[in-house]
Amino acid sequence: MSVRQAILVHPNDSVATALEALPEGVAVDIEGTGGAPDRRITLREAVAFGHKFAIEAIAKGSPVIKYGETIGLATQPIQAGEWVHTHNIESTRGRGDLAPSKGAA
Amino acid sequence: MVFEGFARGNGVGVRNHIAVIPAVGCVNEVALRIADNVRGAVPFLHHQGCAQLEPDLRTVTRVLSGIARNANVGAALIVSLGCESVSAESIVEAVGDTKPIALVRVQESGGVTRAVTEGIAQAQEMALATNAEREESPIGELIVGVKCGASDTTSGLASNVAVGHAVDRIVDEGGTVIFGETTELMGAEHVIERRSANPEISEAILRQILEMEERAKSMGVDMRGSQPTPGNMAGGLSTIEEKSLGAVVKSGTRPIVGALEYGEAPDGKGLHFMDSPGRELEFLTGLAACGCQVILFSTGLGAIQGFSLVPVIKVTGNRNTACYLQEHIDVDVSSILRGEEALEQAGDRLFAEILRVASGAEVKAERLAYDARGANSSIYVKGPVL
Fold it and tell me: Exposure of B37 by Cβ count < 10 A (0-12 exposed, 13-18 middle, 19+ buried)?
């Protein structure tokens, strides 16, 4: 059986998940699940096991989609094949730092 | 489908522990010394029970009563100092005649030494009086708790999905399942709305999520760094929304028929949500207080906790964790991500494991005697210590 390198969970997703440590520059075969088509993306940087990479360009401030749902917003433009993590996306929830100042703020 | 359990006055236990329960943290040492001297006795240690506001005292009383009532407890010994806010008598009353129960008051006994001697004698006597015979019991008697911890991206893609399938099977067989971790529903509210059996349940859970988020925000800081945890992020989870969407699938697909307070026993069968933090100590304690006899615990990076009174089945979808931390992992479902096993098949294996453990098979945490001395329990309170 061939080793699965990465999976795409939902047809609307903009990020896939690495199922093994993937080096920079490699053309990754992404298996689509839940009705998502298979595809191949060349990585712009290394992606660790369990981490995500973009399968399409994501504009700054746009939602990042996994499980067919928004998991956060891009804090900078992201290109297809780039590692997607806390350095380039952010949560919109539990953000006491963005709330009108109260309490300890 | 059946399992072999111990009949109690209020359910069926899958273990036959003697719980030694301090009414207040001041007497933890007494409970520990009593439990050390009676075979089958386990102390339920905690740090609450006095100098707290009324809502927290109600929670503590509910949890201590729930622990004593848990069907895995064959007999309970309550240890009271004598002057604490929590009423030890109310815990004894909550247990009623469902099992042997006794009370030791340290101030009345004449100090620690005498209280320990008295407690050992009472616990030993009760140990001999518990029902220690297993008999066939229907799955409808099972209350199974589900938890995910030390999650990584494999949790949402494999182990939680397999757990969700096992949860559906328990519910379909007439059993009860409790999930929780309110923080980890942030970003998955629409799933809760869709799956709640009626609008009242949905509104109750959404209110609990909002309150948890408001409490976090009231500190004036960014919740990131706390949730997801640093370990979650190292494992590839970037945001609480991503963690939540991967976490909620462990509750399966059946309707949510109840919204419970922390440690509140469900009043019917089916899938229930318990308002609770995600942290292991408080969450596992809450599930035990709700009456769970077995806990299914999905992990990515390798959570190691057991719980003294309740067998905790560890399941992972991370092949590295399954190998490197094999002394903690009961069920390996990394085959799902390799494409070697269907989700349903892995879920069926988990379901079979629940029945095996409910019938007496020891989980890894029990074989390691992890938390056999009750050091990993903690009651979740919201207000100040005064």
Answer: middle
Q: Residue A73 is part of which domain span?
A: 6-90
Tell me: cis bond preceding B228? Omega within 30 of 0 counts: yes
Q: Is residue A99 part of a domain?
A: no
ipTM of the complex: 0.91
Residue A82 lies in a domain: yes
Maximum Cα–Cα distance across chain B:
65
Task: Please give the pLDDT value at position A99.
Answer: 67
Q: Is the peptide bond before B55 cis (omega within 30 degrees of 0)?
A: no
Q: What class, spelled out in words, does domain B17-130 have in CATH? A: alpha beta
Pairwise CA distance, residues B13 & B67, whole Å: 12
Per the listing, tokens 């007497």 go with B27
* CA B337 – CA B184 distance, rounded (Å): 23
Chain B contacts in chain A segment 31-50 (CB below 8 A): 31, 48-50
Binding-face residues of B in 109-168 toward A, CB within 8 A: 152-154, 156-157
With respect to residue A97, please indicate whether it lies within any of the assigned structural domains.
no
Chain A closest-CA separation from residue B200 CA (Å): 24
Question: What are the two backbone dihedrals, phi and then psi, of residue B299, each rounded to the nearest 5 degrees?
Answer: -140, 150
For chain B, list the strands marked E by DSSP.
Answer: 2-8, 11-13, 17-22, 41-43, 73-80, 101-105, 135-138, 143-149, 176-179, 256-260, 270-274, 294-299, 312-316, 331-332
A86 located within any domain: yes
Q: Which of A28-37, A55-64, B217-226, B279-288 has the lowest mean pLDDT?
A: B217-226
Residues of A in contact with B241 (CB under 8 A): 69-72, 91-93
Confidence of residue B325 (pLDDT cuts 50, 70, 90): very high
* CATH number for A82: 2.30.130.110
Instruction: Tell me the pTM.
Output: 0.93
**CA nearest neighbour of B258 among B246, B267, B249:** B267
| Chain B residues with beta carbon closer than 8 angstroms to that of A51 | 153, 236
Count how many domains chain A has: 1
Are residues B21 and B31 in contact, defined by beta-carbon separation less than 8 angstroms? yes
B215 touches chain A (CB under 8 A): no
**pLDDT over 50 at A22, yes or no:** yes
In three-state secondary structure terms, B355 is: helix
Domain boundaries, chain B: 17-130, 140-367
Q: How far is residue B145's CA from residue B288's CA, in Å, rounded to a whole number?
A: 8
Indicate which of B183, B189, B241 best probes the interface with A, i.e. most A CBs within 10 Å of its own CB: B241
